[in-house]
Design goal:
- With about 100 residues, the chain is α+β, with helices and mostly antiparallel strands.
- It is built from four helices and five strands, in the order E-E-H-E-E-H-H-E-H.
- The chain has helices at about 15-20, 45-50, 60-70, 90-95, and strands at about 1-5, 10, 35, 40, 75.
- The radius of gyration is 21 Å and the shape is elongated.
- The termini are far apart.
Length: about 100
């Protein structure tokens, strides 16, 4: 499949991407990601490996579009838990003593 990433044309195939990512250790995922084989990689890491370009030269959407068209599973931003309400010092002391916290 022909795609353009960072204004450069690339001929990408699913098997070619799998081969390129073989032996590459995934970085921690804190942003959009792509599942290739049994591993999940950050999109920028995949783009850097398959294009041999600096990650600052291309956007996440360019790589996501190409990976989706090739049939890989793409994931959005990881969900973060909703912030919990902080306890007041009185509620915290009460909870530490085992008594129910006063609201």
């Amino acid at each position: 499949m022909r795609c353009v990433i960072a204004r450069f044309p690339f001929e990408l195939t699913q098997s070619g991407v799998l081969k390129s990512m073989t032996g590459v250790k995934p970085e921690p995922v804190i942003c959009e990601s792509v599942t290739i084989g049994r591993r999940t990689y950050p999109v920028k890491q995949v783009g850097q490996v398959i294009t041999h370009q600096d990650p600052r030269d291309f956007s996440v959407s360019e790589v996501l579009r190409a990976m989706t068209q090739l049939g890989f599973t793409c994931h959005g931003l990881p969900r973060t838990p909703a912030p919990t309400r902080a306890l007041s010092p009185l509620q915290q002391a009460s909870a530490m003593l085992g008594a129910p916290a006063a609201l």
